[in-house]
Specification:
It is a single chain. With 222 residues, this protein is mainly beta. It has a domain of 123 residues: Jelly Rolls (Sandwich), CATH 2.60.120. The chain has one helix and nine strands. Strands 1-9-3-7-6 form a five-stranded antiparallel beta sheet, with no helix packed on it. It has a four-stranded antiparallel beta sheet with strand order 2-8-4-5, with no helix packed on it. A hairpin with a 5-residue loop joins strand 6 and strand 7. The protein is rod-shaped, with a radius of gyration of 49 Å.
Length: 222
Amino acid sequence: MKRSERCIRNTFKLSAFTIVLALFAALGGNAHGQKATGPQQVKVVNTAAESVPVTLAPDATVGISGTPTVNVNSSQANPLIVRNADNPTRVPFQVRFGANVMDGVGAIIQDLFTVPEGKRAVIEFASGLNKVPVGQTVLDFLIETRLNGDDVDAGHRFIVQSIPGTTPATFVVSGTAKLYADPGTIVKLRVIRTNGTAGLFSTSVTVSGYLEDVSQPPQQQQ
């Protein structure tokens, strides 16, 4: 009887010891399996389909790296409106003039227009129709301007072409240009005929261009 009780007590102790070892192994395994955590790197995937919203802090600035190319979409249906930043106040003008001279006069010299104060005239196109008696010719067709305070007119010649078989003899002028005239100065016309001065001499002239603002004081006509 005593021996049986001793066996039961030994079996109980062994079972208790086994349970303790099992608990220790479980606790020890978890302790060794866990590691201390610290700051970790996180990779954020940002795509067009799933973009990550970003909010800038107040007074924050954004820099551009390098010199990227910028494309402007401009079409006939939705055009991009542009203007000349240097001369935003250009005003187009057009002047027409006609004159007739009689016997003994070999040239038509006439004022076309006076440039307004505070403006510079830029002449871009001139045309003329000139008629003289048969046998005579139109030798010169000039527009005269003054620039940068010059007190002498500068003559700008245009090519004169004859129209064969016309009576009276007809000569035409048509050409583009880039002529400048100071504020307050007078733009002049000079048409010269040759091979005689008898008979009627007529001219009809059109000049066009634009006026632009100038910062320099206007020059006075001498």
